[in-house]
Amino acid sequence: MSDLYEKHEETLSKARDVIHTREEWSAYPEMPSEKHFGEGSKQKGEDDFKALLGGKYEFKVPMQDAEYVQCDATSPYGIDMSMQYPKLDKDTLLERSQQAQKQWRKLDNDTRFGICMEMLDRLSKQSFLMVHSIMHTTGQPYMMSFQAGSAHALERGLETVAYAANAIESTAKTTQWDKVTGKDKEGNLISVKMDKTFKPRGKGVGVMIGCATFPTWNGYPGLFASLSTGNSVIVKPSDKAILPLAITVDIMREVLQDNDINPDVVQLAISNGDHSYTQDIVQDDRIKMIDFTGGNTFGDWLKKNTDGVQLYLEQAGLNNILIESTDNFRAMTSNIAFSLSLYSGQMCTAPQNIYIPKDGIDTNDGHKSFDEVAAGIATATEKLLGDDRRAFALLGALNSEDVNKRVQQSADSNKTFVLGMKTADYADFPDAKTAKPQLIKVSKDDAEMYEEQFGPIAYVIATDDAQNALELVCDSIEQHGAMTTALYSTAEDFKQQAMDEIADAGSPLSVNLTGGVYVNQSSAYSDFHGSGLNPAANTCLTDLGFVAPRFGWVTVREQTN
Amino acid sequence: MSDLYEKHEETLSKARDVIHTREEWSAYPEMPSEKHFGEGSKQKGEDDFKALLGGKYEFKVPMQDAEYVQCDATSPYGIDMSMQYPKLDKDTLLERSQQAQKQWRKLDNDTRFGICMEMLDRLSKQSFLMVHSIMHTTGQPYMMSFQAGSAHALERGLETVAYAANAIESTAKTTQWDKVTGKDKEGNLISVKMDKTFKPRGKGVGVMIGCATFPTWNGYPGLFASLSTGNSVIVKPSDKAILPLAITVDIMREVLQDNDINPDVVQLAISNGDHSYTQDIVQDDRIKMIDFTGGNTFGDWLKKNTDGVQLYLEQAGLNNILIESTDNFRAMTSNIAFSLSLYSGQMCTAPQNIYIPKDGIDTNDGHKSFDEVAAGIATATEKLLGDDRRAFALLGALNSEDVNKRVQQSADSNKTFVLGMKTADYADFPDAKTAKPQLIKVSKDDAEMYEEQFGPIAYVIATDDAQNALELVCDSIEQHGAMTTALYSTAEDFKQQAMDEIADAGSPLSVNLTGGVYVNQSSAYSDFHGSGLNPAANTCLTDLGFVAPRFGWVTVREQTN
């Protein structure tokens, strides 16, 4: 048993339990408190971040012979994030990756798991550096950058290591096999005995293509799933969000080298605006698995152009809320307002389309008309974001100029606004691009209008009745895909019907959320992120199907009689 | 718990144990004895087979509105196998398949497993019908038709049901989740409590494309993996081997209907020479997974033309034997002779290329020159097949006119034959196409000559020495793929090195086989068939990676406080 495995065994063992029981648990501190990270850690993280800005990002374990390329970028909060990153050509990357994998795949499984666990642990210790790098590349607010960007991303990574350990240990390492194969001339049974050994081996080189909004949370599952099952990984960040994954690769390479493993098990690939660089990498025969989160254009390109590679894709979707009735109108509207506001609707799990019967709904405050429900959500949103300091903590900034343009164009259109767009002013970041949610009233027949509008734009959709809303929601899941759906209903029969039908349409479902959990959030070890059952994603993050195909088995059998 | 689940629970439970322990076990009788199948069962199977010939194959639970199409075929043993099979157009097949899946995916898992187990059990009971249908479509000899065609195929099917049960039950059905999310105004902890339900759901419609040589053994794993995880399946047999899969589908539909399940969960698709029919089916968006065993042409086409579909492929490979030394020369040559002869080398696991150091090897009978080793194998083969009744029991018949032509052309060439081709005469089947193995001597530099020659053609290849042989074997595995490799060595250091390097090259390996187990055979629950690690197959039959990606998870969570 390796030292690192022993060091982290208790944590891994607990993770392996809870992916079965699905109970609430976490391994890494999710509060940005020095109580967990040590005195001075907060300031040190900020100082380390600032020291990186504008310069060359130097890996502690360099990628030899890499050329430094200038990557220009501006933080969604307005600060200059231009830096230079090391870049290698495709063939060097792939040759080294394949070479490194030869050693990595042969390691004793426990040793490999121990190294993965140590990587997670060291990444956790750098959470106060990660928080700034996430915030200033993605535009996430501070608390989310800390939680989703570091702590929860690490939980998702650990979750895949736990699945890898379960999948690998589902087969005995060795067996003694004994089979009667016939009789000899005297009629005595003849048997053949064999010693068999079963060797799990990673399938080769994986590519993890990072997204611009959640480079770590969406990236760590694939990254650690590939690594823990014995593959090397090329990490290709979005040009908009390089730093968080550069820090990740840096720490991982250091852990590898500290343990006398070829650090090229993990390498960084900087496309820097050159799409053909990424395309050439993913189309190389040595690539056996690709993890991608992002838009349909490149996702669909990957499906068409990577022949027979194992693809784990999360693409665009359209998330719905269905309101049939509620016994806590105020808490419901507050909960929805929070979900619409969090990171300016730029989460793949953020709700966009809110289906409400045109004749209104029953609530604990009596019957509410469609307009009253819509106004309730609008009021709750205004109240939540009225104070710019609270807006700063929740909204964050707009991830890209595309989103900024989209929200401006929408705001300037002649739609029926229940809530018009407003901006927020952040004291520390006067140049931040911000937008509070727009809420637009539409008829169910305006389906084209409420197709995906990534960003803080939401729709209240008047349906014939609750049954009609349910049909429309299920159709939308099947047609456009969905990462999440929310349902509010106190009518037991309708609720059960909706729970069944939305599950069958293939969307994760949250029912009657009124407290401090939001439909946008999925909890590691407990909630499957995505279902693999609708066009938004072809896999769950994380289940056995996400991890087990990344390795194969070699049976070595030797006759012993 | 369903009645069928209860009926078969003990068997399934044992299968779930042994896929972990990998010990020797079997669920279905592998000897064609009436002791297992009841008095008169043997004759009844033959009578039932003969009654089918020449007529319409009528399903006991018909595919409504199917048109009967004439499918002409001749048994490799020479008898007329022309029959009429029911055929539906693509859209009808897919619509019905999708419709049927909606019910199937929602069944309680135990109910679904119970139905799959009942299908296997009823198929086993028809082993004496299956044996003739396998023999006269594939050309397998009788005993192999019984074992590989029925008993062992069923074991491989059961194995996937066991993996499905393990994968599905790896997640609790429900959990109560409780998380502290903050404090109220009085400083008391606030928590959110949720009831969560986790619903596994099949991803949609699968296609199982049967092969011409092992329609059931290679087909049942994918078929039962898809079914047991909640998918419907369209079974597309090879035009050369329709009957075994028609019988399979027939029995499955009957079991479905007996249990009030829509029988279209399993349907038959007859391409009948029309490639575009198959291509249209597999390219339909509703298809989520494809299982295929066969040549590289269609396998590579599938990789290129089925965008983002989960592919489980077994394609062409090149299987090697490396002889460094042996302590039982006679038993080694006998074992190899058997492997070369079994089903005329038409197994995807049959060895073709035998690497021997040019200066010969050490044996229990002293040093043997290269030519002596080659002659030993040739002599053992001649002895094994000298008697035509024994040849009939081992060789079977040539699967196709392609194979027949290939062996003729090879036999007519001016190669250096250690063993020339001979035919066999079978008393009961005067028109059978037969060929005993050819053994051809080549230098290691004639690599093009010993590329894959599907059929009874093998090569003895003179290498510089044992190390050189090991390098060539590993290169061949990585370049051409391999389903099996055999090694003979008594030199402990070399043996360990070869075991390591061949495992790392990614081929299953059998060492020092001298008894009644052959390199061609892989044993369900114990040996992984293929590794998923070389070009011959992208997956193991069977491991978690073969089963788990066929379904996803829906999380339904409801706040309870």
Describe what this molecule looks like in 3D.
- The structure is a homodimer of 561-residue chains.
- The two termini of chain A are 32 Å apart.
- Chain A is α/β, with parallel strands linked by helices and 561 residues long.
- Chain A has helices spanning 3-21, 34-37, 41-52, 90-104, 109-125, 127-138, 142-169, 220-228, 243-258, 275-282, 296-305, 329-341, 370-385, 388-395, 401-412, 466-480, 492-505, 544-547; strands at 67-71, 83-87, 174-183, 189-202, 205-209, 232-236, 266-268, 287-293, 310-314, 320-323, 353-357, 361-363, 366-368, 417-419, 438-443, 457-463, 485-488, 509-511, 551-559.
- Chain A is 41% helix and 19% strand.
- In chain A, the strands form five sheets. In chain A, strands 14-15-16-11-10-17-18 form a seven-stranded mixed beta sheet. Chain A has a five-stranded parallel beta sheet with strand order 7-6-5-8-9, with helices on both faces. Chain A has a three-stranded antiparallel beta sheet with strand order 3-4-19, with no helix packed on it.
- The interface between A and B is large, with 82 and 82 residues.
- β18 of chain A pairs parallel with β19 of chain B, so a sheet runs across the interface.
